[in-house]
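re: ur question from yesterday

yeah so i grabbed the chain u mentioned. its 240 aa long if i counted rite. heres the sequnce exactly as i have it in my notes:
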Amino acid sequence: MADSTASGSEERRRPWWARAARTAWAYVRRAPGTYLWLAILLVTTQVIRHVDPVTADRILERRSTNLHHLQVSPVRVLVTSALWIAGGGWLSYFLLYNLFHVPAERWLGTLRWISVAMLAHVGATYLSEGVLGWAIHRGLAPPRAVYTLDYGVSYALAGVVAVLTYLIVRPWRYLYAAGVLVVYGLGVQQSRDYTSIGHFSAALIGFACYPLTRERPGSFDPVAAARAVRRRVRARRPRR
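ran it thru and got these structure tokens back, copy pasting raw so excuse formatting
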């Protein structure tokens, strides 16, 4: 008891920035894969930002999972395409990764989490490009579409968003699952392109990853969490 009191007093004597850094490191350490991925995305985003448009297009084209590259160098492009951001800034993905990837990695463990992400990324890539190949074969898309740019982390994100369904306790998980299907289904209905099909496919793959979650039963109750937040807010209000 005395040791814990002493350590608590020592912690309070630390500068605020040292306490903040210690807290942040403890938070990051619980989801190492997510933050390593974010660090890589930060570097690649800066690379694209600081080169001319022609060079940027050349860099991204070499890492595109288009039909041509999937035939000649599938492993290389499937890996490297997940290290670049397509659309949106890095800060928006920092927020999304903290909302979805962080809880998924902490819940499933790093190996199972990255397995879900990569299954969604690879599976949705092949499904969406397969649809594009079918469209080219039927004359619904031009032959040059085999070189269409296709890269980014959104398929992996969609798979992880979907698998988080099994973290939520019943009956709220069914509402969450319905919301996921509506969001990605509307994307297909509105856009009707191979990318929206890829996102919807990735979500379905995430749902299909249920076997990876069996040893990690759902424990998140959004109603209980909201009540806990309310209690904390009320406790911090100054008394009159």
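noticed a couple things. Residues 35 and 52 are 28 Å apart (CA to CA). also The chain has two domains: 1-30, 31-236.
anyway ttyl
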